Amino acid sequence: MIDLTEVLYVDSNVLIAEFPEEMEMTDETFAKVNERFEELASQPAVDTHISNLQMEASLNDDVFSRAQEAAEAGKEFGITDWVIVSEGIKKMALKSQVGEIPGVDISLVDTRAEAMDIAAN
């Protein structure tokens, strides 16, 4: 089991989700991720979310559904900027789903450094 304090954390104004290669793509895992997301999203300084997609498994409907739930929850806390990091097609697939949420702006980048640059501006 992955330690969620290492997967989801806050750095300055950014709520960062690091989804490692070995992460299980189950509904139960993502329910716990979203619970932790909501805990961290309530911090007043947080205004941006970065999802760093490193997992090897392909994304499925459960992942998309949980991502949409997180985007809606983030909006409630004023998080409307999402940066999705992935070198592959996963970022496009996730953007197509989360981008359907009105009021959420999505940026796609290849590296975490690029994501942090966007979050700083």
Could you explain the architecture of this structure?
The protein has 121 residues and is α/β, with parallel strands linked by helices. It has a single domain (4-120), classed as STAS domain (Transcription Regulator spoIIAA, 2-Layer Sandwich), CATH 3.30.750.24. It contains five helices and five strands, in the order H-E-E-H-E-H-E-H-E-H. The chain has helices at 4-7, 27-41, 61-76, 90-98, 112-120; strands at 8-11, 14-19, 48-53, 81-85, 105-109. It has a five-stranded mixed beta sheet, with helices on both faces. Helix 2 runs parallel beside helix 3 (61-76). The radius of gyration is 13 Å and the shape is globular. The termini are far apart. The model has no long low-confidence stretch (mean pLDDT 84).
List key phrases describing it:
single chain; 121 residues; alpha/beta; Transcription Regulator spoIIAA; 5-stranded mixed beta sheet; 5 helices; 21% strand
Topology of this protein?
Elements: H1 4-7, E1 8-11, E2 14-19, H2 27-41, E3 48-53, H3 61-76, E4 81-85, H4 90-98, E5 105-109, H5 112-120
Helix pairs in contact: 2-3
Number of helices: 5
Report, as a whole number of angstroms, the end-to-end distance: 35 Å
Characterize the overall form.
globular
Label the CATH architecture: 2-Layer Sandwich
CATH-assigned fold name = Transcription Regulator spoIIAA
Main pleated-sheet profile: 5 strands, mixed
Q: What gyration radius follows from the Cα positions, in whole Å?
A: 13 Å
Order of helices and strands: HEEHEHEHEH
What strand order characterises the main sheet? 1-2-3-4-5
CATH superfamily, called what?
STAS domain
Q: What integer is the average pLDDT?
A: 84
Q: Fraction of residues in helices?
A: 40-55%
**Main CATH class:** Alpha Beta
Number of domains: 1
Count of distinct strands: 5
Low-confidence stretches: none
Instruction: Estimate what percentage of residues fall within beta strands.
Output: 15-25%
Helix/strand/pairing class, anyone?
alpha/beta
